[in-house]
Amino acid sequence: MTVTAHEVTTADASAELDIRKVTGRIGARVAGLDITGELDSGTVAAVRAALNTHKALVFDATGLDDEGQQRFAAHFGELTTAHPTVPSLDGSPNILRVDSEQGGRANHWHTDVTFVLSPPQASTLRSIVIPPYGGETLIANSAAAYRDLPEPLRAFADTLWAVHTNVYDYAVQGRALGERHEEHREVFTSIKYETAHPVVRVHPLTGERGLFIGGFAQRIVGLSSSESRKILDLLQSYVTRPENVLRWRWSPNELVLFDNRITQHYAIDNYDDLPRRLHRVTVAGDIPVSIEGQRSYSIEGDASHYTTVAEVAATTAA
């Protein structure tokens, strides 16, 4: 099933927002905006424009419940279900419970659900239970990472495709898996997905190029596993440069909206065994496109139960 996403560009933005940058390259606070109710089209356009610029936005979510989080996310397009394999929050098919006590410690760099053909275009995370220390979320600007590449490496990356899968080596995360985490892994991999995406993806709204890799990217098409790992690690090192990363320390009643097309994120496992719980709602995305206009292709796994495919207007590669 194909739907048209509610996409707006900077030129459409008519409402003014109080935007306060958090770092030079990524992240901004949106102050004074009540996101608990319906937003008019001008405000939605302004938020989209801010997201295009800053990649990740932080909002005060005081008074926002699960229904409100879904309503806010739906301003930007049709919602996905919670996850292709992980069950949703009871009674809320669009909400994924990210719970440290239920195996939800995503302590690796990734972009959400890149192992399917059309990963989410945007993700929202809302703080529910926050530990007294630690538990930050890192969000990286993959467009800035691409621009940081030396020209020969950038030209090489432009030619590459990577296979993303939900069946990856958990052992590399540096933490022994407990029984609950093993159970979570079994659920996470209960349906195997493999999809080939361009290593350099063109953002459909801004035309920016970004490195579209992360933890689910396991090998480069046409190369061996060992060759792939060296190349992916090299490119990934540019994504995670400190200059490209927002380190967000959560407070109660906050919502973070980030552009899943051009960021990666990492939930830091630095809060001992304390509880940490967020609720995630994601917005259906388009099929990634390379700088030559080629679209990603599925190798294994049908995700039609999880997401529609959003159609967006073509743009010129930056």
TrEMBL record:
A molecular function GO annotation: metal ion binding
Keyword Metal-binding included in the entry's annotation: yes
Domain TauD/TfdA-like: start-end pairs: 19-282
Pfam families membership: TauD (PF02668)
Keywords in alphabetical order: Dioxygenase, Iron, Metal-binding, Oxidoreductase
Domain of life the protein comes from: Bacteria
GO cellular component, one term: cytoplasm
InterPro entries to which the protein is assigned, alphabetical: AtsK-like (IPR051323), TauD-like_sf (IPR042098), TauD/TfdA-like (IPR003819)
Claim: Iron is one of the keywords in the record: yes
Cofactor dependency: Fe(2+)
Similarity comment: family membership: Belongs to the TfdA dioxygenase family.
Protein's UniProt name: TauD/TfdA family dioxygenase
Biological source species: Actinospica acidithermotolerans
